[in-house]
TrEMBL record, chain A:
One of its GO terms (biological process) is cellular respiration. Residues 66-214 form the Thiamine pyrophosphate enzyme TPP-binding domain. The keyword Oxidoreductase applies. One of its GO terms (molecular function) is oxidoreductase activity, acting on the aldehyde or oxo group of donors, iron-sulfur protein as acceptor. It comes from the Bacteria. InterPro entries: 2-oxoacid:Fd_oxidoreductase, THDP-binding, TPP_enzyme_TPP-bd. The keyword Oxidoreductase applies. Transmembrane segments: none annotated. This is 2-oxoglutarate synthase. Keywords: Oxidoreductase.
Automatic annotation (TrEMBL), chain B:
InterPro entries: 2-oxoacid_oxidoreductase, PFOR_II, Pyrv_Fd/Flavodoxin_OxRdtase_N, THDP-binding, Transketo_C/PFOR_II. Signal peptide: none annotated. Keywords: Oxidoreductase. This is Ferredoxin oxidoreductase. CDD domains: TPP_PYR_PFOR_IOR-alpha_like. Residues 258-331 form the Pyruvate:ferredoxin oxidoreductase core domain. Residues 23-241 form the Pyruvate flavodoxin/ferredoxin oxidoreductase pyrimidine binding domain. SUPFAM superfamilies: Thiamin diphosphate-binding fold (THDP-binding), TK C-terminal domain-like. It comes from Desulfuribacillus stibiiarsenatis. One of its GO terms (molecular function) is oxidoreductase activity.
Amino acid sequence: MSVEEKSLPPKLPKSYRLESKPHKFCPGCGHGSVLRAIAESIDELGIQDKVVYGCDIGCSLLSWDFFNVDSVQAHHGRTTPVITGIKRANPEVIGIAYMGDGGGYAIGSQHLVNAANRNEKITVFLVNNANYGMTGGQMAPTTLPSQKTETSPYGRDVELTGQPFLGPEMVAAITSEGAYVARGTVSNYIQMKKYVKKALENQMAGKGFSFVEILAGCPTNWRTDAKSTWSYIENDMANYFKVGEYKVPAKEE
Amino acid sequence: MAAKPIQGEKRVFMTGNEVIAWAALAAQVDVMYGYPITPQNEIMHYWTRLAPKHDKTFLQTEDELSAGFTTVGGVLAGRKCFTATAGPGNTLMQEPFSMAEMMRIPVVAVIQQRGGPSTATVIYSQQEVTLTTFGGNGEGHRIVYSPSNHQELFDYTIKSFNTAWKYRFPTFLLGDGYQAKMREPLVMYDPEERGIELVKPEVTLGNGMEKGKYNHVRNTFNTEEELYEIVTSMEEEYQRVAPEIIEHQEYNCEGELDVLVIAHGVVSRAAQAAINLFSAEGKAVGHFRPITLRPFPTNELRATAQRAKKILIVESAVGQLGKLVKEALFGLPIDADYLYRPGVGITSDEIVEKVNSIRK
Ligand SMILES: Cc1ncc(C[n+]2csc(CCOP(=O)(O)OP(=O)(O)O)c2C)c(N)n1
Ligand code: SF4
């Protein structure tokens, strides 16, 4: 192999929109990995022309033109109903709602709860970075006990603010047969990608609500370097938020 | 294709909410998304009874935010969708309506005004004029029809879908609880049989490459200047099409007038009854009614108001129509008076009395 060939960048997914690359996330941000896993899954499943991708407010909005797929950028917390509306009006589409923990567990939580409870045939990917990234690092429903943020400067006091929100656990509890629920982490890309792909396959099979939370870093607001970002995800976060599959539809006989 | 829901002309006697459900069917609407609130509930009740028989669908969402945003989604998917709400539901829906406005998504919403902000007084007011015409955190680039009787509820429901899809501004049918709940005769018809062409919906999202390109719909912008450009061109577009959209009605407005009574919606009917009494006595009292509250028939009102010694604004709110009228007449030396009755109905007798008290 020539030197040029060896130094070529890794092959970019076909469903990437090249005009919007390199992407606009901060270096080391978790969003990039998750979006890559989504893109690779879209390619592998051959659904590029069927996907309608919706992103939320928060850093997820930076992905409004990330893919070469039909996309809509919605308001904070409202991506779930927008994708629900699209999917209900045209069941042929593969609807993806992409959001942060603020969008999914705080402002838009009633939409998440009710879409899950109705077993809407859509796929929700939620990036849990334990804070509000875009607005400058405030406390999120997922901020860890004693974690410092701009609005919990002395560390999150769970007596006052409650415990970190356990999304997949809740969604698994309220969805019915056919739902797919998992929690992955950017620190285990292969596994996370597997969950992402399964969540899309589940929608393609028309089985039920598909939900994957992904633990991700926000080095800018965490004020962490590469090493401690990784360690925070792998140790502190994964310790509280257990990675794994929470609900898998029964295999058809 | 399923048979047309209405064939030929049909004389019926129904409530306003039932009329709207039928009109939506006649307009070939596909989906309704909604959340219960009085006085619009029966639109959903009738729609859910009619829908399955005509291959139409419905979703009762968890709240009005969701109803508004699912409607936005349905429209993006290329279906004729609508929602209906009132009062605090209208407040919540301003967020999805703002998004629709900015993204030029032709959502249609029926607003059946109720007293606000309150609970229990759930039936009537004209207090949602400001919210419906200018609500949201943008510039209020919307279209608002204010019908006054059941025939108009039918006609303008059909028209709302055509206007929305033709111009791609969110379009509102602003009724009220009296119109929603009372029964009245009207003629229902299939619009196409009457030569009314139904504007076809277009798919924005969901058929990928078939459109030849992927669409990325957004209201996130990198700079204030970018937003400025978009809003400015939207304003220009809105002003350009406004004359095609604007509608009003004049009742006994010929020649010089002692008093010009300005009212909209159901209150116009009281105004017209009052005018009938004056004209029987040979008195020069006319009535001007904006049918579109936004865009507002500014030029038309200015022309007529200048022939009047006095104008009288009558509404079941404290000057919400009044604000629109005053803005329209800005700069003209006009003597104005008002009859503001927030949250309650207005009779023709009250209007007659008021006109007599100000007629010189
Ligand atoms: C109705 C509304 N309230 C508040 C905001 C401001 N806002 C923008 S992004 C954001 C937080 C985003 O955090 P999260 O959803 O966790 O996503 P992240 O940026 O961390 O990826 C907030 C509060 C908004 N856009 N809309
Ligand atoms: S602020 Fe945080 S979440 Fe947002 S792009 Fe930067 S690192 Fe990512």
